[in-house]
Amino acid sequence: MENSRGSKMRELETMVTQAVRAEESGKTRRRSSYIGVTGFTRAAEARQALQCFAGSSARKLMVGVLVSSRTLSGRANRRPGRYPNIERIREIFHEHPAALNLIHYNTDAPATLSSELLRLVDVSGAHLHGFQLNIAWPNVGEIEAFKKGTGSKQRIVLQIGGRAMKRVDHSPQKLADMVARYTGIIERRNQAATV
Q1: Which residue has the higher pLDDT, 54 or 128?
Q2: Rounded distance, CA 195 to CA 170, Å?
């Protein structure tokens, strides 16, 4: 088990170092405010990745932790090696000038999204900066309720992935129309939709 963890740490360090070098050499395709890595399950992984960014990048490292409604309720996810126990999130997120600590969240119960996110704010500690919603077109009212419940302190990244694109028939116009539904609760920054 320790060998696989060591291998994962080396792979993570290599990936982060390559991303920083690509950014510094100007080989990245688009400008962004952070470089994202998702799948952290242990505090040591996040610490090691953040060390690669210390003073070497103008961008932040998005430390992404996967959480689902299943893991939030204490049940195992079908990919347990990628989803940490909820109690460990507080340990994974560090106070660090290069860190953008986001939970990548998906739910089987989108009608209760706001209460689920509020619960995660409580259990994740002071260093949580926000959420990436891995949900195809979440309910606008749920996001507004969450923002009201937190005083809009948490950053929200809206993932527009394959399922979301399928729902708009991969049409740029329909995509623009759907994104317009979030006007006033999200803002766009460098190709990403954020609150």
Answers
A1: 128
A2: 24
Boundaries of every domain in the chain = 2-194
Interval 117-154: pLDDT, tens: 999 999 999 999 999 999 999 999 999 999 998 887 88
Among 1.10.3210, 3.30.420, 3.20.20, 3.30.1380, what is the CATH number of 2-194?
3.20.20
Q: How far apart are CA 143 and CA 12, in angstroms?
A: 32
Confidence class for position 62, pLDDT limits 50, 70, 90: very high
Are 70 and 76 spatial neighbours (Cβ–Cβ below 8 Å)? yes
pLDDT the model gives residue 52:
84
DSSP 111-163: GGHHHHHHHHHHHH-TT--EEEE-SSS--HHHHHHHHHHHTT-SEEEE---HH
Report residue 122 as tokens: 């409580």
pLDDT tens digit sequence for 12-28: 556 556 655 655 555 54
Helices 113-124, 140-150: axis angle to 10 degrees equals 30
Query: How many Å from the N-terminal Cα to the C-terminal Cα in the chain?
Result: 39
